[in-house]
Specification:
Layout lengths: L11 H27 L4 H47 L1 H14 L4 H23 L11 H25 L5 H24 L3 H29 L1
């Protein structure tokens, strides 16, 4: 009985955007809240800064991801259009080119040409897109999906420090945001590493290290500006 295998690479597009968005949302918003809180401002100022960071960051992530992935999509469409023209102009040459690719992968020359002819008889463009250009359904550029994933994941990461700054007594805001953010970063890094098949410990430590550095620098800057004012 045949079983369907599922590989982690099938989810690499949306996973990358989601992990990046959640990390950025948590780290940047927590750093912003800590920096503003360290300057000695009121709870309302800290909360306003956190909410503004959440909204602005979500929109920025969505816009940046959409533009980036749209550029990839434009390149894919241009390559496919070029391949269509080549197929129309020299189909036999394209068959030989595809067969040569299979030969390089270890297929016998005669069999490679036979496979090339059969695949091109079914869908020539799809065969060249997959084996010559390296395009596949799992790596296909999806700008809107990437933008939405980035915006939602950023907001999910950013909401924790904003909520903490709203409900925790003002004098404990910095401590609560720091501790909870580090804990959330560790969990997020471990989960992302687990889904990607990497070491959970290494993934958690990597995210915690850079997140702690960002929050520490932001706190120092907030205190310096608060003292200057």
């Amino acid at each position: 009985m045949r079983t369907t295998e599922r590989h982690r690479s099938e989810h690499i597009g949306w996973l990358r955007a989601a992990v990046l968005g959640a990390n950025d949302g948590l780290i940047s918003t927590a750093s912003l809240v800590l920096g503003v809180a360290a300057s000695g401002t009121s709870r309302s100022s800290v909360l306003i800064a956190g909410v503004a960071g959440l909204v602005a960051g979500s929109m920025s992530m969505a816009a940046g991801e959409y533009v980036s992935v749209s550029s990839q999509s434009d390149t894919e469409r241009a390559d496919l259009a070029m391949e269509r023209r080549e197929l129309a102009a020299d189909r036999e040459g394209e068959e030989a080119e595809l067969a040569a690719i299979y030969v390089e992968r270890g297929v016998d020359a005669a069999l490679a040409l036979q496979v090339s002819k059969q695949l091109m008889a079914t869908d020539a463009l799809a065969a060249h897109a997959r084996d010559e250009l390296g395009f596949s359904a799992s790596t296909q550029a999806r700008p809107l999906q990437a933008a939405m994933a980035s915006a939602v994941s950023f907001a999910c990461g950013a909401v924790a420090p904003v909520l903490l700054s709203a409900v925790v007594p003002h004098e404990y805001t910095s401590r609560a945001v720091t501790v909870c953010s580090i804990a959330f970063l560790a969990v997020l890094g471990a989960v992302a590493a687990r889904v990607g098949g990497a070491s959970m410990t290494r993934g958690a430590l990597r995210v915690v290290l850079w997140g702690s550095l960002a929050m520490g620098v932001s706190t120092i800057v907030g205190r310096l500006f608060g003292a200057a004012l």
